[in-house]
Amino acid sequence: MDVHVPVMADRIVDVLSRSLAREGSVVVDGTLGLGGHARAILEANPNARLIGIDRDPDALGVARERLGPLAERATLVHAVYDELPDVLAALGIDAVDAILLDLGLSSLQIDRTERGFAYRVDAPLDMRMDQSEGSSAADVLNTYAAGELSRILKRYGEEKFADRIARAIVRDRPFTTSGPLVETISAAIPAAARFSGGHPAKRTFQALRIEVNRELEALEGVLPAAVDALALGGQIAVLSYHSLEDRLVKRTFAAGASDRAPRDLPVVPEHLRAELELVTRGAERPDEQEVESNPRAASARLRIAKRIRERT
């Protein structure tokens, strides 16, 4: 079984468990992955039931095995997390007590080179979290016009050399594996910039992955839906790994934690009061000890919010 260390698991379990004490409480892990967080949550909360969602069918199989006997208290669903309302409706669940979204790639996707997420090895350019549907990274690279490639590199990768890289990709394509692509990207970046800010292909690969899996679109869809699904006192925890994700989470939580009434209104009506309370002030980060033992946690940012107003 793949080695998998869930990020900031102790903190997440400690906080979410405060909403899972009652018999029959329900927690949703919208990004089940290999089930590390799910297992820790179920072990700490014997009264809780888990709804585990993942778009990767391989991950669902590994997670079920990892959960072992705990899987008796889990319902695992093959879906994208922005399909949360449909998943809950199909299960006859009106509200849940806790929600976790770990937006990082799972060890399954990173470590299995045939999935094409890694830029340090030559592998097929797939990058689909669900390999049964959608366009691969190779499809994007080999069919998008230079302007469209540049757009996604700027928007999703925050790549300042996006135009140069996009033109080089169009010039050198077609691409089927990551090795030649990395060479093209590196050659397109000025020599002085290749040795700063991490691997020269990192931002391009991030942008391709986000485009292929419509990750930001899915996150924009699930955040309000997840807040709406929380019962009074329920909590949502989101682990993000780059600024684009964290910005969306921060904005959604801040809006939910603010009254929606005009500033000069002497009394705020109940339906305009804040529906969320920020449990974390700003984004929490893993401590040095965790990063040392699990380098993949280094870029993690954790935000948690709690529903404090009845659902309407």
Structure description:
- This protein is α/β, with parallel strands linked by helices.
- The chain has two domains: 9-108 and 215-307, Rossmann fold; 130-212, Putative methyltransferase TM0872, insert domain (DNA polymerase, domain 1, Orthogonal Bundle), CATH 1.10.150.
- Helices cover 41% and strands 14% of the residues.
- It contains 13 helices and seven strands.
- It has helices at 9-16, 36-44, 57-67, 84-90, 107-111, 137-143, 146-157, 162-172, 178-188, 202-212, 215-229, 243-256, 288-293, and strands spanning 26-29, 49-54, 74-78, 96-102, 230-240, 276-278, 301-307.
- Strand 1 (26-29), helix 2 (36-44) and strand 2 (49-54) form a beta-alpha-beta unit.
- The radius of gyration is 21 Å and the shape is globular.
- The model has no long low-confidence stretch (mean pLDDT 91).
Can you give keywords for this protein?
single chain; 312 residues; alpha/beta; Rossmann fold; DNA polymerase, domain 1; 2 domains; seven-stranded mixed β-sheet; 7 strands; 14% strand; globular
Describe the structure in brief:
The chain has 312 residues and is α/β, with parallel strands linked by helices. 41% of the residues lie in helices and 14% in strands.
What's the arrangement of secondary structure elements?
Blueprint: H1 9-16, E1 26-29, H2 36-44, E2 49-54, H3 57-67, E3 74-78, H4 84-90, E4 96-102, H5 107-111, H6 137-143, H7 146-157, H8 162-172, H9 178-188, H10 202-212, H11 215-229, E5 230-240, H12 243-256, E6 276-278, H13 288-293, E7 301-307
Parallel strand pairs: 1-2, 1-4, 2-3, 4-5
Antiparallel strand pairs: 5-7, 6-7
